[in-house]
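Take a specimen:
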Amino acid sequence: MTNQLEGASWIRRMFEEGARLKAERGAENVFDFTLGNPEVDPPEEVIAALRRIAAENRKGSHGYMPNAGFAETREAMARRLTEATGVEFTRDLVLMTCGAAGAMNVVLKAMLDPGDEVIVLVPYFPEYRFYIENHGGKVVPVETDEAFLPDVARIAAAITPRTKAIVINSPNNPTGAVYPAGVLEELDTLLCGLERTVVAISDEPYKALVFDGARQAEVASIVRHTVIANSWSKAQAISGERIGYLAISPRIGEAQALSHACTFTNRTLGFVNASAIWQLVAAEAGDAVVDVRAYQEKRDLLCEGLARIGYQAPKPQGSFYVFPRSPLADDVAFIGLLAKEGVLAVPGSGFGRSGYFRLSLTTPRETIERSLAAFARAFQAAG
C-alpha cells in the first residue's frame, strides 16, 4: 500500500490541490478540469423509475438476493446486450456489480494467478494498474499509435505465455479516441489465432458518449473473447450510485466456468451485491442517456478556444475528456504553470503518456469561457 500510494492517481492528487487553491483564492478563481464527475442531472426517465420503484416498495426488494444480482435485471441486461451485439447473451453470463470498477476487479480476481500479465494500452486510466496488481497480476503497457488507436503489431509482440487479458477502453479515457471496427477486427484475428484464450476486457462506461453522430462499434460483436465491464455512472450521470454489470460473452470457451468464478469473487471481495434498488432502476431505465449535445458543445468551445491560443487540442470523438499536447515536454511542469493561473488539469504522465494533459468536460460552460484567459497566460509563460 505504501508503494502504491507513492504512485497514486494524479487525478485525485490534482483534485486535492484544487480544494487547497479554492480555500486560498476562492472557488470562483479556480478552474477545475480534474475529475470526470458529471455535473448534469440524470435523465428524467431514470429519476421517474427510481421514484416509482421506491414508492412501490415491492415485497422482498430490500433483502438478500442471488450473488449475481436480481434475475429480472440480469435478464433485461442479457436481452439488451443480445439486441445490441447480435451475440446470444443469457442472464447466467451477466452479473450486477458495484460499477465498472467492481466488475473489473471481480473478473481479474477470477482470472489471474500471481504473475499473470494483463496488457493495457497507453495512455490508460491509471486505476487499471491498481486493479490488476490487487490480484497479483503484472501490468504490461503497450503504446498506441499517433491517433491513440490500438497498434495490433505491438500488442502481438507483447503477448507471452503468461498473458491472460488485454484491457480495451473505447471511447477512451483520457484521449477520447473511439476504436473503429477495423482495428477491433484485427485484434480479434490476433486473439483467436493464439493457442490459448486471452480475454479482451472491454471497459465501456463512455460507450454512449460519442460525438458528431458517430457510434462506438460493439466490441463483443467483433472480438469473440470479450468480457464487458460497464456502468451507468457516466451515461446517466449517477456516478455516486456505483451501479454496473459484468457480461461474459458466450463465445469464450469457458464462459460458464468464468461466470461461476466471478459470481464467487463478487461475494468474497466484499461487494456481495450491487445496490438492490438501482438494479431495479437499471432493469427499467437502463437505456436512458444524458443529452450528449451538451458535452459536444463544451468540447467544441474548449478545443476551439485552446487552438486559437496555440495549443494542439484535437477534438475527441467520445467520452468527456480533452487530451491536448503540453507546450512543454515536461507535462508536470506545465501543470504547475496552469495551477499558478488557477487551472487544474491532470498531467498525461499520470496516464502513462508524458507531454500531454487531460481536461474534463464535466465543468460548467461558464467555467470554460472564463478559463481561456488563464490558459493563454500559462501558454505564454511556457514560452
In short: The first strand starts at residue 31 and ends at 32.
